[in-house]
Amino acid sequence: MNGGIVMEIRTRFAPSPTGYLHVGGARTALFSFLYARRHGGKFILRIEDTDLERSEKIFEDQLLDDLKWLGLNWDEGPDTDGSYGPYRQSDRLEVYRQFANKLVEEGKAYEVYAEPDDIGKLREEILAKSQAPHYTREMLEKLSTEKIDEYKMSGKKPAIYFSMPRKDWILNDLVKGNVNFTEDSTGDFAIMRSSGLPTYNFAVVVDDALMKITHVIRGDDHLSNTVKQMALYESFGFPLPAFAHLSTILGPDRTRLSKRHGSTSVGEYRKRGFLPEALVNYLALLGWSHPEQKEMMSIEEMEKLFDFDRVSKNPAVYDEKKLTWMNGRYIREVSDERLYELSKPFIVPKMFSEEEYVSNKKWIIQSIKSLKTELEELSQLPEKMEIFFVKPEVDHDLFVNVEKAGVVQAYKVLIDLYESIEDWNVEKITEATKKAVKDSKIKASDFYHPLRKILTGKESGPDLVEFIFLIGRENTIARLRKFLEG
Ligand code: GLU
Prior knowledge:
It is a single chain. The chain is 50% helix and 9% strand. By secondary structure, the chain is mainly alpha-helical. It has a three-stranded antiparallel β-sheet. The protein has a two-stranded parallel ribbon with strand order 1-2. A hairpin with a 3-residue loop joins β5 (169-173) and β6 (177-181). α12 packs across α14 and α18 (426-440) crosses α20. The chain binds glutamic acid. Glutamic acid binds next to loops.
């Protein structure tokens, strides 16, 4: 509350389109989204593409698409209207130039006429004196004097450096608590490059301030940058937003999460057939916990509960097995209609044509549902569905066992019973199968276990009667006959 006016909470996710959306980035986006939603605020998407060489449109498009897939819809962003745009940094270069000039005019920043190589040399010199490479205005202006004329004659632009006020700083971080930065933690730093592009620390402050961001939520790899950003806020007289630095995500071996630990990009999980709600649910638990330790929850539930008091300072450990398990649970809970929609890209055109997928809808839903308990990723569908289409090889050892146990005759009776069923449905198949077991006086497991193996080629799988129904009478009898004829 501020004099009776409630401040609107505005959070942002500010990815650089230099690669695919990583699970760490997705978690940052999720927490920013949740915090804004929790407080009825706004979630903003800003594209930080000032690294022109590494930024690519294809990454930007993919980022937007992955965020939408996760359900992290933004209120303002590069593709929407908003009062604080443009929301892509490469469209804001003039804004940075103006703000940098303002600092120069006020004597808080200064021009440096030096090539990156010259600065590199200076850095080496400072390091050789075993000092941290902190630049001062004096050092940089000394470099400049040699180049000023050359730059001016050739029309080359200087870089702009910020005069870092030499004092101690305290950051009161929503996750990390109080973080102290001593006077010597940083020196002067570049805010504009001679190319006319702003540096990250500068652009991020100008944008967060102009876009009225109230909470800066990001990975703790940016913690050490924050002191520079705080100093810039102060120089401009911008109000300081709140900061929340999220802990690193580690692999199960406690090293930084990387490819070695499994898939690390949202796109890979999409391809593997993860449900967005499963990934969102798992990501939320990477550093945040439900007040009652509940594990499975929807994004709507999280929106009501999310706050930083339950966000851990300690690194979160990424466990792909748990995520996969969770996805399996979500697959089991999904409605038939959605399961049908979600499964499509995994089996069309591999197993069915578009038309077949439509005309066999009922059968397809039922067959996928019969596999639900074993599915952890929808990309397993083609392999798991093989049992419906591929006749298993005859297992001769199994035949010997079946013969010994006296089941052969029972299977012949079963064939007759199946042949006499008028209306091929689960109920009738159950009835016939039970009758075959009962009449044969064979132990049920001696009858059923080999039968499953004969029909599916596997030791375990979907409900057997349902499977028999789904492959149909002809296929069932053909598979049994093939086996009995050896
Ligand atoms: N573009 C920066 C990154 O992707 C944003 C960091 C921030 O949120 O301030 O790391």
